[in-house]
Amino acid sequence: MTLNILFASSPEDWAAYETPLQAAFDKVGLTTDLRADFPPDQVDYIVYAPDGTVQDFTVFTRLKAVFSLWAGVEKIVGNQTLNVPLTRMVDFGLRQGMVEWVTGHVLRYHLGMDAHINANPGEWDPAAPPLSRSRRVTILGLGELGTACGQALDALGFPVSGWSRTAKSVPGITCFHGDEGLTQALELADILVLLLPNTPQTQNTLNTDTLAVLPQGAFVLNPGRGPLIDDDALLAALDAGQVAHATLDVFRTEPLPLDHPYWHHPNVTVTPHIAAATRTDSASKLVAENLRLSETGAPLLHLVDRSRGY
Ligand code: NDP
Ligand code: OXD
């Protein structure tokens, strides 16, 4: 039997994914017809990214599951027309990319690199940076990406704390959870990293009240999602020196509008949602494996809990 797979993303993604996806489907021994366009009533599975045009899933009358190419699923998780299993992306490329982006920016702050990169001739400050053991890092979100980043920073010698919704025990990371745990985690954040999903519960996690809990002069990294931060509150904290500098990869509106104050603030670095990218080869293997599992009736990998929102 041939399985009809609709690739529902941008034309650029289709060009990048068609060959690796087809190769991965062939490798798991399934006969598939993979296309970027199909009559909806003939589609068995959808490979999805939010850049595509699919909004109404009711037209896909024989749909069995949707496989998201993205880790963050806030644009689809609340879609009331979707009533089949939804999986999200967990892959080596995303994890490794995020570890590299986060450790790179943590080290930039920790080593005070900007002072030397931007120094004028004759500015000769021979003070050595402190060692990592005296710079505390807190990660909000101890999932696939937050945990990997925390463990990489622990291996570099940073005291690492983390915060999650449910209680956790992770080697090398002091774990906190729940409302009370958030305050404790923020108090330990010389450098704060946001790696939470965007859900109604996580929006504005960083606001006037929580920013005030950070040690004065803390640094903020946000590779999670824009709505995790109340932007006005962060700008006020930057102007007051409560936050020394922020590096932001994700925004409420992307691309970041040209007139947004973040572009022009001297203590903000913006990066264009490039902290971690799904890599076509490893991502295609996960999609193919989930296709295989679905066809055998086995539980799918990285199933999204629609009630939790991630
Ligand atoms: P996971 O689902 O694996 O982890 C999410 C973590 O957040 C979990 O530890 C979870 O807690 C915690 N969490 C969720 N809700 C709350 C809450 N209300 N209070 C406290 N903690 C909470 O996600 P990933 O690690 O795979 O990805 C995280 C996010 O990173 C994605 O959702 C996406 O937005 C972003 N991302 C950004 C990329 C970029 O390029 N900038 C690339 C890829 C992802 P618990 O463990 O208890 O469930
Ligand atoms: C993702 C992302 O969620 O790239 O995968 O942001």
What does this structure look like?
With 310 residues, the protein is α/β, with parallel strands linked by helices. The longest helix is centred in the N-terminal third of the chain and has 20 residues, at 92-111. The protein folds into two domains: 3-91 and 278-296, Rossmann fold, CATH 3.40.50; 92-270, Rossmann fold (3-Layer(aba) Sandwich), CATH 3.40.50. The strands form two sheets. The protein has a seven-stranded parallel sheet with strand order 8-7-6-9-10-11-12, sandwiched between helices. Strands 2-1-3-4-5 form a five-stranded parallel sheet, with helices on one face. It has nine helices and twelve strands. 33% of the residues lie in helices and 17% in strands. The protein binds NADPH dihydro-nicotinamide-adenine-dinucleotide phosphate and oxalic acid. NADPH dihydro-nicotinamide-adenine-dinucleotide phosphate binds next to α4 and β7.
CATH topology of the largest domain: Rossmann fold
Count of discrete alpha- or pi-helical segments spanning 4 or more residues: 9
Low-confidence stretches: none
Order of helices and strands: EHEEEEHHEHEEHEHEHEHEH
Radius of gyration based on Cα positions:
21 Å
The side-by-side strand order for the widest beta sheet comes to: 8-7-6-9-10-11-12
Please, what is the average pLDDT?
Answer: 97
Helix-strand layout with pairing:
Layout: E1 3-8, H1 11-27, E2 32-35, E3 45-48, E4 65-68, E5 86-87, H2 92-111, H3 113-117, E6 137-140, H4 144-155, E7 160-164, E8 173-177, H5 178-187, E9 191-194, H6 208-213, E10 218-222, H7 231-240, E11 243-248, H8 261-264, E12 268-270, H9 280-296
Parallel strand pairs: 1-2, 1-3, 3-4, 4-5, 6-7, 6-9, 7-8, 9-10, 10-11, 11-12
